[in-house]
Design a protein that fits this description.
The complex is a heterodimer of chains A (184) and B (122).
Chain A lengths: L3 H14 L4 E9 L4 E8 L6 H6 L16 H11 L3 E7 L3 E9 L11 H11 L5 E7 L6 E4 H8 L7 H16 L6
Parallel strand pairs in A: 1-5
Antiparallel strand pairs in A: 1-2, 2-4, 3-4, 5-6
Helix pairs in contact in A: 1-4, 4-6
Chain B lengths: L3 H20 L3 E6 L2 H6 L1 H14 L5 E6 L11 E4 L6 E3 L7 H10 L9 H4 L2
Classes of the chains: A alpha+beta (184), B alpha+beta (122).
Chain lengths: 184, 122
């Protein structure tokens, strides 16, 4: 995959499959420290310590349609390639936190790519549950926050995947993210 | 920044349409969004279907995602189920193919055979 936003789309699907009601995506970029941190935090069903221990293996998946699961191993490899860090904390019944660190200036770090389209794809794919919260902070200035719980509240029963609502979200995301440090 | 007031206006405007959507027995477009699908380019395909359905104001069509159906080499895969018709599976779908699939299959009920899995397997 050639965009970090595609890895994020893929990893958040794990949270959706885990029955989360809320998934937070926190992206924190620091030019000063030369770091990029991506955290994905969900309140899904969580994993046992035994499963966490083997989840980075490409031969582990919960799917029955194939025997390989590449999402976690690919991002782990990318973190390691980019002199970063990789951590999973998970508790059964509580949820999972994925912390992905990267050296921002590393030559192997892919661009962020289209984060707005990733958020839209998540909403189109799972319009009813969970809520997605994206927080993008690039040091200095306010972070950009996109929160479907807040949007859902205003819409009061109108589904998130209504075309007019999706257009509104696309504009909001592009405008909000456009004001942040683009790093690509 | 976009305002929430604008969103409230959208709510007022779309409320009736939403009820229409709920009542009609419709077509389902499911895009494979597992790791294999995403890596092969499913994201722009999913949003292209949504954009096309919005542009044509099709009220009885649902765009959804599905997991991996075990044929990763054919991704991006899109399954379309129209009422009273068998499911049609499109393979190696690109965003450029989407307007034609929507016009010919979703609107006019004629699957685009050359993009389907049966054509790919020949």
């Amino acid at each position: 995959m050639n965009e970090l936003a595609l890895y994020i789309l893929d990893l958040v699907q794990n949270s959706v499959s885990a029955g989360a009601t809320r998934v937070e995506i926190r992206i924190t970029l620091s030019r000063q420290d030369d770091t990029l941190l991506i955290e994905i935090i969900d309140d899904g069903r969580g994993m046992s310590p035994e499963f966490v221990a083997k989840v980075s293996s490409p031969f582990v998946t919960t799917r029955t349609t194939r025997k390989v699961g590449l999402g976690i191993p690919m991002i782990r490899q990318l973190c390691e390639m980019c002199e970063g860090s990789f951590a999973i904390e998970s508790e059964v019944g509580r949820g999972t936190r994925l912390s992905l660190g990267f050296r921002l200036s590393h030559v192997d770090l892919p661009p962020m790519g289209d984060l707005a389209e990733t958020m839209l794809a998540l909403v189109i794919g799972s319009p009813d549950k969970p809520d997605f919260v994206l927080t993008y902070s690039a040091g200095g200035g306010d972070p950009y926050v996109f929160d479907t719980a807040q949007i859902r509240q205003v819409l009061d029963g109108v589904p998130l995947n209504t075309p007019e609502v999706l257009s509104w979200m696309r504009e909001d995301l592009n405008e909000g993210l456009g004001q942040q440090d683009p790093f690509s | 920044m976009k305002s929430l007031a604008e969103l409230e206006a959208i709510r007022q405007k779309t409320l009736n349409k939403v009820n229409l959507r709920r009542e009609s027995e419709g077509t389902r477009i499911a895009v494979g969004m597992a790791t294999c699908g995403i890596a092969a380019g499913a994201r722009p395909v999913l949003t292209a279907f949504m954009d096309e359905v919005g542009k044509r104001n099709l009220l009885n069509v649902v765009v959804a995602q599905t997991g991996c159906i075990g044929m990763c080499r054919y991704e991006p895969i899109v399954e379309i189920t129209c009422p009273n018709q068998e499911k049609v599976t499109y393979v190696h779908v690109k965003p450029e193919m989407v307007p034609r699939i929507v016009a010919e299959h979703v609107v006019n009920g004629q699957p685009v055979m050359e993009y389907t899995i049966s054509a790919a397997e020949k």
